[in-house]
Specification:
Helices cover 37% and strands 24% of the residues.
């Protein structure tokens, strides 16, 4: 088989064109000799080589001898060299002319579609539509998508007509109460387009109700008025520390917990206050700010200490000691406390999972199921269950065992194979119960089933030191091997990213800088975690 035949099979696997394989980098790697011959005019020469074309085709217009250009390797050459040639050819070929005319009619003549109004496109900008003599306000100009959305929903197209309606509209008490009752559903429609023009065009009645709710407050934004109506507030909330006025955070679409005062801002974070209030609702003996020697811990409840870590303030931009978090964990353990570390983005994104974990640690979970009443089954799709119930979310696994109670999945344990120093080991990857549920004996039942029904030499697993003390694995007869060392994430804009996402071979910009220097130039910081404990189970 020649190189050209091999090239054709490579670019057209199973007879279908692959744009990824036709990339010059791949061709240079797999077919270096061919690449050297075509690199000067790579795309055109590659297409001609694949289709046995010796010469670039001429323009189809008989009065033109110009060569046509290549569209792309997948589509081939253009038929004409220019728009001028297309227009000239229409005059000589009636079939072609009719085809072009029909295409233009379907694209440009809007009156066929909107027969009840006079519609045309703006000459200088085809993205806008002009509606002639629509109402007493004359012609209307609308962005095409806005026009289509309004027209298809039988809404008024005139902003001025809607403004007049808003001024004169007096909602009834039932209409106000109904909007409040269903406001969360309505809020999902408007939260990403909170501007006056959009509300006037699409939701004039609701806009009127929201404005009137806070009309006694001057010089506040629409987003603030929506917030006040949403939470049934007559006045903006006050600072939780000093009772002064707070300010509105436009990025989070809510008022801050504290005012602008440095003493209030530095006191504690919004998330920490929210977390403390939640734990205190479970147990009134919860203590805010607890000290061991000179180290401060955010929350204490019984023999559990809890740290709420803001990502920026705990990154290397502020905290230079990479052992800071691990040292606090060791100090807590040395004084017979377990430490639960909660990161800012986890609390914001996975709040329900963290609340369920805390309830479980405090023995406050009210929904209890006995594993002996459950049936073990192998589970095919576990992605949604893990994303909704496990803090680390889904990961690839080959063995997935679940406990079913009344045909509902309530507990899950997954396993996978790992190659460690050329030794194949089984890893216990994930275990979790459904939110706010304690499946008594669930882990033991699932693990015992695995031991009886699957082959293994040894089983390893990792306990994340941020929120696990390893007690579960010790109950399952695992042996603690070692602490694996510190882990870290990259952090930017209050989001943690796994370090594997930004390994040097993925981000290298050929500048000669290290991966850390490149990431810092892009505005990322490192945040150090507590690491993991390695556990092993042997026959």
């Amino acid at each position: 088989m020649t190189n050209i035949e091999e090239l054709k099979l490579y670019i057209y696997p199973n007879g279908k064109y692959s744009s990824k394989r036709s990339n010059s980098i791949n061709i240079k790697k797999h077919f270096p000799e061919i690449y050297e011959n075509i690199k000067d005019n790579y795309h055109t020469k590659l297409y001609m080589l694949l289709h046995d074309i010796n010469e670039i085709p001429n323009c189809k217009n008989p009065n033109c001898n110009n060569k046509v250009k290549l569209k792309n390797i997948g589509k081939g050459f253009h038929i004409f060299c220019s728009t001028k040639c297309i227009n000239e050819f229409q005059k000589t070929d009636k079939l072609f002319s009719d085809k072009i005319s029909k295409s233009l009619l379907s694209k440009n003549i809007l009156s066929n579609k909107y027969k009840d109004i006079k519609v045309s496109r703006e000459k200088n900008n085809k993205n806008y539509i002009i509606i002639k003599d629509y109402c007493k306000h004359g012609n209307i100009k609308l962005y095409t998508k806005v026009f289509n959305s309004l027209y298809n929903n039988n809404l008024s197209l005139c902003e001025n007509c809607n403004k007049e309606f808003i001024e004169n509209y007096i909602p009834s008490n039932d209409e106000i109460n109904n909007l409040q009752y269903n406001f969360e559903d309505f809020y999902k429609k408007i939260r990403y387009v909170l501007n006056d023009k959009h509300m006037i065009l699409f939701f004039p009645k609701e806009y009127n109700i929201i404005l009137n709710w806070s009309k006694h407050i001057k010089n506040i934004s629409l987003a603030e008025r929506v917030y006040l109506f949403r939470y049934n507030l007559i006045e903006p909330p006050k600072c939780a520390n000093c009772n002064n006025s707070t300010y509105f955070n436009n990025s989070q679409l809510k008022y801050t917990t504290f005012c602008h005062s440095k003493s209030c801002i530095n006191n504690t974070s919004n998330g920490e206050i929210e977390l403390f209030n939640f734990i205190k609702s479970l147990d009134s003996n919860t203590i805010h700010k607890y000290f061991i020697t000179r180290r401060e811990y955010d929350i204490k409840i019984n023999n559990i200490l809890i740290e709420y870590n803001g990502l920026y303030w705990h990154s290397d931009a502020i905290q230079e000691d990479k052992n800071y978090h691990l040292n606090k964990l060791k100090l807590a353990n040395d004084n017979r406390y377990s430490l639960l570390t909660i990161w800012e983005d986890d609390w914001e994104i996975k709040k329900d999972i963290i609340k369920s974990m805390i309830c479980s640690r405090l023995n406050k979970t009210t929904n209890k199921i006995y594993a002996r009443k459950c049936e073990i089954r192998e589970v095919k799709d576990v992605k949604d269950f893990l994303n909704e119930n496990h803090l680390q979310g889904w990961c690839q696994s080959s063995i997935r065992l679940g406990l079913y109670y009344h045909d509902n999945l309530v507990s899950l344990m997954t396993f996978g194979k790992r190659n460690i120093h050329k030794n194949k080991k089984i890893e216990l990857l994930r275990f979790c119960n459904i939110l706010n549920t304690n499946v008594i004996g669930g882990a033991s039942k699932l693990f015992s089933y695995f031991l009886k029904n699957y082959e293994y030499d040894s089983i390893i697993t990792y306990a994340n030191c941020d929120y696990s003390n390893g007690n579960l694995y010790e109950k399952l007869k695992f042996k603690k091997i070692k602490h694996t060392g510190l882990n870290f994430w990259w952090v930017k804009d209050k989001i943690k990213y796994n370090r594997s996402t930004f390994m040097k071979y993925k981000i290298d910009d050929k500048s000669g800088l290290t991966a850390k220097e490149q990431m810092e130039n892009k505005g990322y910081n490192i945040i150090w975690g507590n690491g993991n404990y390695l556990y092993e189970y042997n026959k």
